[in-house]
């Protein structure tokens, strides 16, 4: 080999070594969302970038399909595998359809977690739920009780009578009632997640229970309809409507006083926590039942037998922060 060729070879080796070293400087975490252009997920990306800045050696790759399909996410996953990212944190469009592609990612040594919307167990190392049924049940009662220092009658306006998650939340809510002296649950009614029926059910509650102090709706359709019913009945300040809602939909009710406060998960916290979990798994934390894995300022995620964890209590929205979030989701 000529001296010139040897020199070129040396330069090539140095270049490859330098490139490889540079690539290893950052832990690349892909935040895969259901679709691009959705405010909720853009807020989650803000949280992911917050975590990356805190950690210092993380690069966030915010990505997803243009529409909410499993096929689109599978294409994205395959691209990320080809790029050799360190971790994939996904909110899945279909828990089963994306699992094989994510299994392939894990076989290539890529850390995989799901968050918000889960993946079948074989397709991820852990799943981060925004909250838990027990936390949600307690929160919806507490939201009402916090503004009823002397107690009073409250009623629940749910979705359908067969809605599994709603029924579990209501069951958990009734369990904690003894912790809130004076709070009397007088009725549970169902609006079937239809705006007009939910509105009529709220009217019926006000007619049937003249001493009613709060309507609790653990459904975004129900809380909005009940707020409107209370407003139309001229009962703002007499009956507080609370539960689970979207800031973009509930801003008017908060401004008018029909709703003092309500809750839902905070997407910024979700993106932050998912990033922290991904990073800690890349760095050697083990995803196994009973393990507690750090989520930075969100505390620790404790994994259950299905390797799932709850992030936190639902986040409370009121006049102090509604302006910040109403344009996000």
The computed structural class is: alpha/beta
Gross morphology is elongated
Second rung of CATH, namely the architecture of the largest domain: 3-Layer(aba) Sandwich
* The CATH homology group name of the largest domain: Response regulator
Number of helices: 11
Number of β-strand runs:
14
In the predicted model, the low-confidence regions spanning at least 5 consecutive residues are: 1-23
Strand line-up in the sheet with most strands:
2-1-3-4-5-13
Helical coverage, percent range: 40-55%
Notes on the protein architecture:
With 329 residues, this protein is an alpha/beta fold. 44% of the residues lie in helices and 20% in strands. The protein is built from 11 helices and 14 strands. Helix 5 (133-145) crosses helix 6 and helix 8 packs parallel to helix 9 (247-256).
């Amino acid at each position: 080999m000529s001296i010139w060729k040897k020199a070129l070879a040396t330069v090539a080796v140095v270049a490859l070594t330098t490139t490889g070293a540079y690539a290893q400087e950052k832990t690349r975490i892909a935040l895969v969302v259901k679709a691009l252009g959705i405010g909720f997920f853009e807020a989650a990306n803000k949280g992911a970038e917050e975590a990356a800045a805190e950690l210092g050696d993380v690069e966030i790759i915010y990505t997803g399909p243009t529409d909410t399909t499993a096929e689109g996410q599978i294409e994205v996953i395959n691209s990320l595998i080809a790029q050799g990212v360190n971790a994939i944190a996904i909110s899945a469009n279909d828990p089963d359809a994306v699992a094989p592609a994510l299994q392939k990612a894990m076989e290539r040594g890529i850390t995989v977690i799901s968050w918000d919307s889960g993946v079948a167990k074989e397709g991820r190392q852990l799943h981060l739920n925004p909250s838990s049924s027990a936390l949600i049940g307690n929160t919806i009662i507490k939201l009402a009780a916090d503004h009823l220092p002397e107690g009073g009658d409250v009623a629940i306006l749910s979705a359908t009578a067969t809605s599994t998650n709603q029924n579990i939340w209501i069951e958990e809510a009734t369990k904690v009632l003894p912790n809130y002296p004076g709070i009397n649950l007088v009725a549970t009614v169902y609006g079937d997640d239809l705006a007009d029926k939910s509105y009529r059910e709220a009217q019926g509650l006000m007619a049937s229970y003249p001493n009613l102090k709060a309507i609790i709706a653990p459904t975004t359709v129900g809380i909005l309809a009940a707020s409107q019913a209370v407003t139309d009945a001229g009962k703002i300040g007499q009956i507080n409507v609370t539960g689970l809602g979207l800031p973009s939909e509930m801003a008017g009710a908060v401004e008018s006083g029909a709703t003092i406060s309500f809750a839902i998960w905070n997407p910024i916290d979700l993106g932050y926590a998912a990033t922290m979990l991904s990073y800690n798994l890349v760095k050697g934390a083990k995803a196994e039942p009973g393990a507690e894995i750090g989520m930075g300022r969100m505390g620790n995620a404790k994994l259950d037998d299905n390797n799932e964890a709850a992030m936190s209590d639902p986040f409370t929205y009121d006049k102090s922060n509604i302006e910040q979030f109403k344009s996000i989701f």
